Amino acid sequence: MEQFGIPLVVLLLVIFYGGTFWISLSIGKKNENADGYMTAGNDIGFGISAASMTATWIWASSMYASATSGYTYGISGPIHYGLWGALMILFIYPFGKRIREVAPKAHTLAEVMHARHGASSQLLLAGSNVVGSLISLMSNFLAGGLLIALLSPFNFVQGVFIVALGVLLYSLWSGFRASVLTDFVQVAAMLGAVAILVPVIFFSAGFPAAFETGAGNLTAHQSNFFSSEAFLNQGAPYIAAVLAYAIGNQTIAQRLFAVRESLIKPTFITATIGYGAMVIGVGMLGVLALYLDIDVLEGDVNNIVPQMASSYLPLALLVLFFIMIIGALSSTADSDLSALSSIVMADIYGQNIAGKENADPKTMLLIGRITMVVATAIAIALASLKLDILDLLVFVGALWGALVFPVIASFYWRKVTNSAFTVSVIAALATFIPVRFGWIPMDGVAGIVVDLLNVVGIGVVAGLMVFGFLGQRVALIVGVLAAVVSGPFVIGFLHDYATLSGSLVAYAVSTIVCAAMSFRSEMEFDFALIKQRTGDFDTGEQAAVPDAGDEPLPAGKAGK
Fold first, then answer.
1. 20 to 30 Å CA-CA from 14: which of 33, 152, 168, 416?
2. CA neighbor of 53 nearest in space, from 23, 21, 107, 96
3. Rounded distance between C-alpha atoms, residue 207 and residue 195, angstroms
4. pLDDT tens string 405-440
5. What is d(CA 517, CA 417) in angstroms, rounded to the nearest whole number?
6. Per-residue pLDDT tens digits for 78-135
7. What is the sign of the dihedral through the CA atoms of 531, 533, 535 and 540?
């Protein structure tokens, strides 16, 4: 197995992180702007925004997880992982257009929830994003530590520290602007590397003969492209998880608020294609490892990708692979740091401590940078646990499933109240956790109840996918049909699949509670208020407006 010497590893890391830091320095300002630090002026062009969206959605973790899926479920694994992840980028762009329409100058989605509802809804969304971004940051540091430990004399802990400090170095200076500009360079390198490296590994490992001689190493489910095990354990949970990622993830929302509004559609379409091609391609390395009956190093499936690369690539291409993975994990890790700093700057300090009109931009910048340092330290500590990356990604996505319907409904339905949002999310989380971790015996009535909620969850997910493109009427028809058709096949067995059930239950409970409470409300919210209540912190131009609340507006002032 090929390894680098310490001088070569140090040289590669200095070139990569030194180069990104130099780019960061080139865009810094003496009089730094807090809004620029968070959203880069809401006017990023197509090339940078499309590259940044692609790079952020493609993490080292997603490459590793796709390969794990291929190694576990066979050839359908990377398809389930990459295809559904790609399509979810496409599915969220109509919601993105609506969000920018009502909040063109916002910094975080939670900030918009504060303007729409109030502090409790904002803090629920912000809190979930803090948890999700910390887990994402940790998994990227974990991927970097594993890579460096496998390909060099450095150990895992040293690798985690090197990657964490490298990302912090350039992110700290210019925040989000550094993230999006370095993303452009990183995604170009990643796309080029995948196009070269994956075919080379395949042919070096004996493709296509390896797929003939190794077929006997697969189980019946692994050899079946339409395996129900692969779909129920990987495909279906990931469909639900990535829809939640798309709606609840601040790293995606931050790019939505940063890109020029007229470029939202082409940006998301381009990211869809780039993500799908790259992640499915790298995931096929896991399929190849399965056919070759390779024993994963230390029994850790996170090692599949670097192990395949180090086994079948010559030194020159292994260097390219190393840079590709470092670029992939760094592009998402810097996005997580930017997201966390924006949440603390805008949602915690800007809205809830100082208040919109009294927030000091210089103080915000200091808070943002301190947040990055603290988040890096926490993520380093969590990375030492060496948890399974695929499980982490699906868990976080399922966790965010509790937020999807209340968040989307809040942008379209005038009757959604702060209490409906808050209660529905808490109820969904309270149901999701025991189902996901098997705390409830699923024998008898409990299993049937969970399966009925699963049926509702299937309808909600299907309906939401259609709603953004085709509107409410078609979404309701599709959602009802999906629930009715799936019912006979789901009830009685789906509760045995805890990952999928937990996610679907979160969707179902949050939708049922939010809809029931909102139908009874008398609110007629004016969506024009969101634009007034959000905006730049540096200009001081925002006029004082009423705080968000549940009181209905006069009939003539209702929004659409």
1. 33
2. 96
3. 16
4. 999 999 999 999 999 999 999 999 899 889 888 888
5. 8
6. 998 888 888 878 888 888 889 999 999 888 888 899 899 988 888 888 888 888 888 8
7. positive
Ramachandran angles phi, psi of 486, nearest 5°: -80, -25
The candidate with the shortest Cα–Cα distance to 58, out of 177, 165, 172, 143, is 143
Residue 348 reports pLDDT greater than 50: yes
CB atoms within 10 A of CB 26: 11
Q: Is the peptide bond before 208 cis (omega within 30 degrees of 0)?
A: yes
What percentage of the chain has pLDDT greater than the value 90? 29
Is residue 40 within 8 A of residue 257, CB to CB? The reply is: no
Query: Where does residue 297 fall: left (phi above 0), alpha (psi -120 to 50 degrees), or beta otherwise?
Result: beta
Domain chopping of the chain, boundaries: 33-401
Q: What fold, for 33-401?
A: Sodium/glucose cotransporter (1.20.1730)
- What is the CA angle 132-377-401, rounded to 5? 5
- Tokens representing 241 are 């998880």
Of the chain, the end-to-end C-alpha distance in Å amounts to 62
pLDDT of residue 71: 93
Q: Beta-carbon neighbour count of residue 555 at 10 Å?
A: 7
Give the pLDDT band (50/70/90) at residue 361.
Answer: confident
Angle at 204 between CA 201 and CA 208, to 5 degrees: 90
Confidence at residue 29, expressed as pLDDT on a 0 to 100 scale = 54
Alpha carbon of residue 22 to chain centroid: 27
User: CB within 8 A of 40, min separation 6: which ones?
Assistant: 176, 177, 180, 258
Query: What are the residues facing 259 on neighbouring strands?
Result: 44
Distance between CA atoms of 248 and 507, rounded to whole angstroms? 13
Asked which of 168-177, 316-325, 538-547, 551-560 is least confident by mean pLDDT, the reply is 551-560
CA pair distance 492, 304, nearest whole angstrom: 36
- Indicate the burial class of 67 (C-beta count within 10 angstroms; 0-12, 13-18, 19 or more): buried
* Most confident among 1-10, 155-164, 204-213, 539-548 (mean pLDDT): 155-164
Tokens coding 145:
């530590």
Positive or negative torsion for Cα 207, 208, 213, 214: positive
The phi, psi pair for 44, rounded to 5°, reads -75, 140
Give me the mean pLDDT over the 458-469 stretch.
92
Q: Number of C-alpha atoms within 13 angstroms, CB side, residue 363?
A: 11
Do the Cβ atoms of 498 and 453 come closer than 8 Å?
no
